[in-house]
Amino acid sequence: MTDVRAFVTEHRADLLHDLDSWLRIPGISAQSAHHADVQRSAEWLAEAFRRTGFPTVEIWPTEGLPAVFAEWPAADDDAPVALVYGHHDVQPVDPIELWRTDPFDPTIDGDVLRARGASDDKGQLLFHLLGLRAHLAETGETSPAVTLKFLIEGEEESGSPNFEKLLSDRRARLDCDVVVITDTGMLAEDVPSAVTGMRGLVVGTVAFHGPDLDLHSGVFGGAVPNPATAIARLVAALHDEDGVVQVPDFYDDVRTLTETEQKLFAMVPFDEDAFLATSKSRALAGEGGYSTLERLGARPTAEVNGLGGGYQGDGGKTIVPSDAFAKLSFRLVADQNPSKIRAAVERFVGTHVPPGITHTIDWEGDGVAPCIVGIDTAAYGALSRAIGSAFDTEIVLPTREGGSGPEAAIQSALGAPLIFLGVGLPDDQIHAPNEKVTLSMLYKGAEATAHLWREIAALGRDGVRA
Amino acid sequence: MTDVRAFVTEHRADLLHDLDSWLRIPGISAQSAHHADVQRSAEWLAEAFRRTGFPTVEIWPTEGLPAVFAEWPAADDDAPVALVYGHHDVQPVDPIELWRTDPFDPTIDGDVLRARGASDDKGQLLFHLLGLRAHLAETGETSPAVTLKFLIEGEEESGSPNFEKLLSDRRARLDCDVVVITDTGMLAEDVPSAVTGMRGLVVGTVAFHGPDLDLHSGVFGGAVPNPATAIARLVAALHDEDGVVQVPDFYDDVRTLTETEQKLFAMVPFDEDAFLATSKSRALAGEGGYSTLERLGARPTAEVNGLGGGYQGDGGKTIVPSDAFAKLSFRLVADQNPSKIRAAVERFVGTHVPPGITHTIDWEGDGVAPCIVGIDTAAYGALSRAIGSAFDTEIVLPTREGGSGPEAAIQSALGAPLIFLGVGLPDDQIHAPNEKVTLSMLYKGAEATAHLWREIAALGRDGVRA
Fold first, then answer.
1. B461: distance to nearest CA of chain A, Å?
2. Min Cα separation A181/chain B (Å)
3. Contact B229 A304 (CB under 8 A)
4. Domain B4-198+370-464 belongs to what topology?
5. Residue contact B306–A305, C-beta within 8 A
6. Which of A186, B232, B337, B429 satisfies CB 3.0 to 4.6 Å to A232 for a cystine?
7. Residues of chain B contacting A286 with CB distance shorter than 8 Å
8. Cα–Cα distance between A115 and B258 in angstroms, integer?
């Protein structure tokens, strides 16, 4: 039996070798010219699973791009089943001229490896393979202490258009007791943390129609309803002076932070200057009574993403416009429900349509439910201990991400608790030029995953769901 | 000596012949392909003035398209000097497919003549020539009872870009005691009326800048200021629930309607269904406490002509936009001052810029001052009697137009009282396909102008300015 850290340290070169090979495949799911590369990426990953020892490895086609599924049963039929979610596709590289190195020629500089996909998500998936080998070395067994399943999507960077159908079609094969999401990050190299929530999302366009054509504002201005004025009044009515969303019933189902959660949020380091620099903004803003991290992670928002109507060119044109629109999005937190929020917004809009204006609301899809991890659950406890062992510290701060991914769909389809094990860092520049990963974080991730399987096995099937 | 009506009736064919000839010249000032036609139009008009007997006829070049100036002195050096303003250029004809006849092949159908420029403004200018001949026939003299000057612009349909300079350069030649604007209309064939006011105008673009680039609304939404929300709140703050403009000091200089003016406004026929049909709108709106005609003619407005910012494409894009703008225009009434209004709006905008947002305001030019004709002035009295004689009725209702033209610049440059003699009708479709003029209105216009010179001569130079 070998110590986990010793094994990982000794076999770092294997991880670097695999990374160098896989990162050279430009599997950009959003660009059809690269769809053959996404296929190659799936095949590369399937081969890597086989090489690691997984007895079952399958490439699952979809109506779009393929996912990879791998399974390695525990010797003990009663061992918990853990499913790891990640994705093998990558973001486009534009604007390419801002890259200092070739995005598909991985370049190591000290502890940093630069390439598209280094952090999101190839590096994070490969630490699992090294970590699993460390786990087997530690236990001296030929199969893991938990039954492991990996579901690695090929369209996450394109909005996962076929993912829910895949979950539904393959439901039986995906049965599990806990889901490990490996597509997130930590606060800093020396501040190990785990994501415990992702916001949900509802997106729609409200269009107001006034006169049937643009009118001369001298001849008609001041005597007929102006849809641009009306849409501005609607958008203005979304928040009060204190940034509180004014849609009736909007906050009804919001789970308020417990005292413990508030304390933990307050412990998370927040550097206002760094946040403003990253967001290229000049001031903080948002809902009164909450910190910036609470606003981003634990509070829902109403945001106008686009506003339009009437004359858009240079100078002026004295018209009463015929049409105006607002593109709105609402980030949701537990336990808000996308369809209830849509209905509340529809009622709210209805009360803000003046006489003489007609309106439509077009929603994008069904929306995304929020997801949240209870920090008092057994699965989170196991994760916290595993990260603590890897980082030599007992504190694992819970964080919440403001964005929305396929996690809620996974949770809903599989009915198992979610935990997030990711070692990206805030400056990894994912989705941007010069994406990088910090190699020592990947090594820590490998250690953490080795510890995690042991911790989950110790809980047992019922225990991990508690 | 001949009766005015008898002369006009006898010589109708001359007016129709001239109209047919001039309307065939497509003098579209907004289209450079037609600039040679605008030049031909000026030459045609100059020749028509000469043919009528004007001893002085000049084509005045500008940096753009030429104006025509004609002068015919009265025999009496002390006679009042009247200057007639109009324009010889016409609007474009797009969308050409909606015309039922060729816009430059004048077509007579009963009392209606259809062609581009028939009403705006060629028909209205030509009734002056017939009217002047009737005036000479009535008096039996070889020169008019007032010194007549005509200043006929060639760029009115392109925003009169060189007109103020022309007024300033030719100031001495344009000296006069009263200005007759011949580019407007009456309420209906059987409701003779005269415009007594045109609104002024201030136009500008307010731009708000938030983050220096579009941000991911999941990662940053709810924590940084959104310029689209801020611009919507600014636009919403422009009016209260009752349509009253909320810019402080906005109404300070507004001349309120006298009791007489209110009564006259109330006498003007207003057909709500017809107005809604013309404006392709489904409801009336505007400042509380005023009728639609008062809102259009006697009250200032704040209107948003364009609104923009953030994502403009199909579907949704979850960003916090970097920029947003509102294109605003303010119609002004006597005695509002464009530069005072600009300053008031700048102060108002300044108080609506949230922390973290920067802003700019770009004004279009210096704005246009409102102009108004006192209905108790001698010049308006002369006009009212002249129209009354032509239409065989004593009532001449004062109206006010909502739009803004070069009239204020004329009033300000020449320092003489303005009156409006125009016989267009609301359904003339000026600036639109199938422009028409009602011929009997042109004949009445010719009679009115013949009566007007006699009435003004009777007032004397000092009298007409009273």
1. 34
2. 18
3. yes
4. Aminopeptidase (3.40.630)
5. no
6. B232
7. 222-224
8. 76
Tokens at residue A149, please?
A: 């399943």
Look up the ipTM and state it: 0.85
CA B67 – CA B27 distance, rounded (Å): 12
Q: List, as one string, the DSSP characters of B61-129.
A: --SSS-EEEEEE--SSTTS-EEEEEEE--B----SGGG-SS-TTS-EEETTEEESTTTTTTHHHHHHHH
Contact yes or no for B327 and A306 at CB 8 A: no
Q: Is B318 on the interface with A (CB under 8 A)?
A: yes
* A286/B233 touch (CB, cutoff 8 Å), yes or no: no
- What span, in angstroms and rounded, lies between the C-alpha atoms of B426 and B411? 25
B384, pLDDT greater than 80 = yes
Tens of pLDDT, residue by residue, chain A (466 residues) = 579 999 999 999 999 999 999 999 999 999 999 999 999 999 999 999 999 999 999 999 999 999 999 999 999 999 999 999 999 999 999 889 989 999 999 999 999 999 999 999 999 999 999 999 999 999 999 999 999 999 999 999 888 889 999 999 999 999 999 999 999 999 889 889 999 989 999 999 999 999 998 888 888 889 999 999 999 999 999 999 999 999 999 999 999 988 988 998 898 888 999 899 988 999 999 999 999 999 998 999 999 999 999 999 888 888 999 999 999 999 999 999 999 999 999 999 999 999 999 999 999 988 889 988 888 999 999 999 999 999 998 778 888 887 777 888 898 899 999 999 999 998 898 888 899 999 999 999 999 999 999 999 999 999 999 8
**In chain A, ranges of CATH 3.30.70.360 domains:** 200-254+300-363
- Inter-chain CB proximity B331 and A232 less than 8 Å: no
Q: What distance in Å separates residue B424's CA from the closest CA in chain A?
A: 15
Interchain contact, A236 vs B229, CB within 8 Å: yes
Cis peptide, bond prior to residue A335, ω within 30 of zero:
yes
Q: Are the C-beta atoms of A330 and A202 separated by less than 8 Å?
A: yes
For chain A, helix (H) and strand (E) counts, in that order, are: 14, 18
Closest Cα in chain A, distance from residue B59 (Å): 31
Is residue B354 within 8 angstroms of chain A, CB to CB?
yes
β strands within B333-368, DSSP E: 358-363
CATH 3.40.630.10 boundaries in chain A: 4-198+370-464
Residues β-bridged to residue B178: B82
Q: Does A333 touch chain B (CB under 8 A)?
A: no
Residues facing B113 on adjacent strands = B108, B437
Cβ contacts of B292 on chain A, cutoff 8 Å:
223
Do the Cβ atoms of A299 and B222 come within 8 Å? Answer: yes
Structure tokens at A278: 């990253």
CB contact under 8 A, A304 and B310: yes
Q: For B75-117, how does the pLDDT look when each residue is reduced to its tens digit (9 = 90+)?
A: 999 999 999 999 999 999 988 998 999 999 999 999 999 999 9
Does domain A200-254+300-363 match CATH 3.20.20.370? no
- Do A236 and B239 make contact, defined as CB atoms within 8 angstroms? no
